[in-house]
Amino acid sequence: DKVTTWLNNILVPSEIVEVNQSSENDKDTVWPDNSLLTSDIFEMDQSSRNVILSKEILDTMSFEYISGNVSDENINTTVMNVTTVTTTDHINLNDTTLQSVHSTPAKRSILGSDPEYKEETQIVNGGRKRGKINKRKEKQLERNRIKSEWSFTIDNACNHTKEEKKYNVCNKFDLLEEDIMSIRKLLSIIDLKVDQDKFILTMMVIQSPKRTDRRKKDRKERNTIIYYMPKKSGERIRVCVSAFSNITSFTKRRLTILANKFKEGNPSPKEIRGGARVNAQSQEVTESIMKFIQKFKNKKSHYARNDTGRSYLHPELSVKKMWEYWRNKRSNNGKSISSFGKFYNIFVNNLNLSFGHPKQDVCSFCTELNTKIKVEADEELKTTMKNNLIIHKENSKVFSRMLSTVEPGCINVCFDMIQNQPIPKLSVTDTFYSRQVWLYNLTFVVTSAENQSVESCYLYTWLETDSGRGPNEVCSAIFDFLERLENRLKNMTEPPTTLNLYSAQNKNQFVIALLLYYINCTETVFTKINHIFPVRGHSYMPPDQVFGRIEKCLRKKENIISPTEYYNVFKNFAQVYIVNRDFYIYDFKTLLKNIIKPNQFKTTEQKVFSYSKGSKTLGISQTYDGTPIQISILKRNVNLTVLNNKEKLPKLNHVKPLKQKDVQNLMRFFNVPDDAKEFYHDIFQPNELSTNENEETNEEGN
Fold this sequence. Notes:
The strands form three sheets. Strands 7, 8, 9, 10, 11, 12, 13, 14, 15 and 16 form a ten-stranded mixed β-sheet that branches. A three-stranded antiparallel β-sheet has the order 1-2-3. Strand 15 (about 615-620) and strand 16 (about 630) form a beta hairpin. The two termini are about 50 Å apart. The chain is elongated, with a radius of gyration of 37 Å. With about 700 residues, the chain is α+β, with helices and mostly antiparallel strands. It has three domains: about 1-100, no CATH class; about 145-210 and about 220-265, no CATH class; about 405-695, no CATH class. Helices cover about 35% and strands about 10% of the residues.
């Protein structure tokens, strides 16, 4: 009602007629790319969607007006600037015609303007139901299959006898049993009817009758068919239709139809049995649906290591919403529509598409810059911001390329802290309102390996009852991993001399000093270590893939009471190292504080830290390919060898009293298993941390 009233007040009838006629002149008009906006489909109620205007242009502008993308004072100007687009190709967003469609900022189009969705939609045989078994088709194949073993004698092939051989054209007695069995064997391995027909046509000669003087004028023209059976020697033996039919198990009717089709100019038989009846109108609707779906851009999933063939549309879309929009467009143009069932079947059986999930943990810089670009009026400043955004995204791709490239003499290792896991994990409602004990995980992946096998993944884990999540725990895990990696590489004839470490976190002075100590004060095969960091907000790395597979298994577990249950899942994807059993936590923090200078540079601005054997300075670079600047981070008259005297830290409970109370409340919902009794006993041990230590402990997620 709002749209109709507005149109009556703003547009005079002559203007509406003129616009309608311009649209009517082009029967193949395709609505502009900006007409299929997010706001068009998702922000309208059903009554607004059913508003039927005369033609596409007014319909497009009505969608914009309803969604609020075009203000009242600018709507008249906007309608007058509309230009129809008459191409069936994907819309080019750089076209000046489309840039003038809106005089006010509009939301990005799902069809093509979202840079995340840039892949073309392709037709796929079988659609996305690839694993589904078609029992009806299997039965059809079984009926088509010709058996190689069957009871048959040459005498029963037809009524012709050996004595009448010179008076007829059937020379079946010249065929040997092995010749017939050879033909049957060839037919038995052909499952498809079409392929069987093609094979049989090679043994038939189809021609017009030679004698035509007795043919009636209104009689249909007949065919003369000559049948041959091949021998193993290559000779062709002519037989009658009865013998040919009995040997091949092809009925006479099937042979006649096959010959007639071949004579009509269809040399390659096609399967026309079954399926829905096809007519011109139904075919036009099907093609319209296919073209409509193909207009949507999609993207591949970056979580899978191999290309599954599946592509993903915008998460706010659905098959129902796509069908409604297609139906409204067709109805407004006076064209026939289809049911939702037909639209859904075409979507599933012809396209390997699904719908993505809303983005999470996206880059704050990209989001902030995109927001400013939308509202910026100064074109020069807007261009500068767009260029900065492009440079930012290109820099993020450089990190991914470096991570996937393994240079000779180098080994690439990626590590990151994965999500904390709660214990106990229960399905009761009280769990949502209660604090649980954390299980921490630091995962290392040797990306130089051909695949992410268990041997190339190292997972270090400890409980909140064992220790916290600070520099001591991280440095201890890194140091233990480097020693294990060292032992693994020493067995190689030509071990790599450069270690490239990739991580999204741990850009702090303690890790810097630890790596400087490791390369200078230990017997290592490495002469250089590069610690490389991604662009903030674009830090998807191999450890995230490992955690994705772990999380997929954990989601299937309703309750997890014991840490051992987590360890058993972890072992399927990585080598698991448990604190105080496989590695120990040392007091690196106290020693390193005494030998490190206060920060001489901003660590957040650096992309690469370089460590060289024999050099006690740190190389820093703000770009991935820049020359490192050497900086001294050690105090005067100190020696890194003080870390040789590092002390092992005792087991220390970090669970706070309030969390202890919540866990005690949850324990009434389960029985503690034998392998977890020590863990639950440790939870309620006195928390001996001082107030200052509690403040320094990283309690993210609590």
